[in-house]
Amino acid sequence: MLDDIFDYVEHIRERPAWQPIPDAVRDSLREPIPVRGTDLATVHGQFMCDVLPFATGNSHPGFMGWVHGGGNPVGMLADMLAAGLNANLGGRDHMPIEVERQVAHWVRELFGFPPAATGLFVTGTSMANLIGVLVARTAALGGHVRHKGVGAAGRRLVAYTSAAAHRCIAQAMDLCGLGVDALRVIPTNKRHQIDLAALADAIAADRRAGRVPFLVVGTAGTVDIGGIDDLAGLADLVGREELWFHVDGAYGALGMLAPDIAPRLAGIERADSLALDFHKWGQVPYDAGFILVRDGALHHNTFASPAAYLRRETRGLAAGSPWPCDFGPDLSRSFRALKTWFTLKTYGTERLGAMISRTCSLARYLRERIEAAPALELLAPVELNIVCFRYRSADADRVNSDIVADLHESGIVAPSTTVLDGQLAIRAAIVNHRTEQRDVDALVEATLAPGKAGSKSCAA
Q1: What separation in angstroms does the CA of 42 have from each of 5, 38, 321, 333?
Q2: pLDDT tens-digit readout, 294-341
Q3: Which of these, 102, 159, 273, 356, could form a disulfide with 215 (CB 3.0-4.6 Å)?
Q4: What's the pLDDT band for 412 if we cut at 50, 70, 90?
Q5: In this predicted structure, what is the pLDDT of residue 153?
């Protein structure tokens, strides 16, 4: 099994980036629950035939669809070790938790947070953003909100983020009981940065109406084009307004590892909380999200729930308080920190930063190829490693949608789509460390071929 998965990774370029799943393969997994066991080799054989060839494909250098990292073999092996240990990192006194605390220390160091800041591994930034909103809610309403609920204070809390923010911010407002309507969506400029003047006006309007602003969410790496808000400007504004400043840095925050990108993240060190994913630009295998909170005591008070069966001691296995479960909703937690620890220790921040810079360089190269091709049109600035463009056509939305589906089925490359100013765009997110210039060239060439065919059929 180990040899087979190493072969898969080593020869990933020889496989399709993605391929459709045949009906017969889908049907092979429509079997009743096994009553008697099956030989391991047989089960592995089914995996190799029916599962492995039809995966998402984000390990492939031609995968440019969504912001998915490519993983790495060191992290893969670390995940095997973690599974062998089978450690529950919810709590108690054992070394796997110290590994997580070590990574949390590195994250504090990377982002300039104080020693009292607390960090926690979670599934991904959607969960990390939810935790950030919950801590901000506690800061605004006090610890009694956990018992009396958000309605007891009789105050209508409102939060703010940009029109380019990820949908999980609205979802977090929903899940924490404040409601999606309590989130103000602020317009952006041409670089998809939040409009600071419009934000200030919205806060003032809510105050006049008797509502209580409590949270501003900035974005480091917007989902559509990779834009970075003016984080320093946001920090200044939020400081004046005395609000909680949370940054959704799902993938862009790790630009701090790259000397050429880090200056654009100035102000991130002033955030009250920060969400990010190591499984994106950090290339750690899924999943490895992270939440960092400046006020560790407030973070603890937002989640800690004493229980007799979780009694803390000063010695023995039940020592080591506070436990990770005191900083998030999960009591059962996998050893996500190990694959991140292995990745950082093995490759180092210098090499990881160089990789991040290279993906941005490839995006700029793709922009140049697009600008040099009369049949193609760039639809947004290239801020980091995401490029949005389309094939010019009288029926552009249909043609470009068909192009992307054709590209997927070709197995050559796998971009995605988004909509910018009402226009459907081909969106190429260059995140995988395996992606090279030849893969970018393949995307351009493969886009032009079906695009011309689509344009002709449209004209006919």
Answers
A1: 16, 7, 45, 31
A2: 999 999 999 999 888 889 999 999 999 999 999 999 999 999 999 999
A3: 159
A4: very high
A5: 78
203-209: average pLDDT: 98
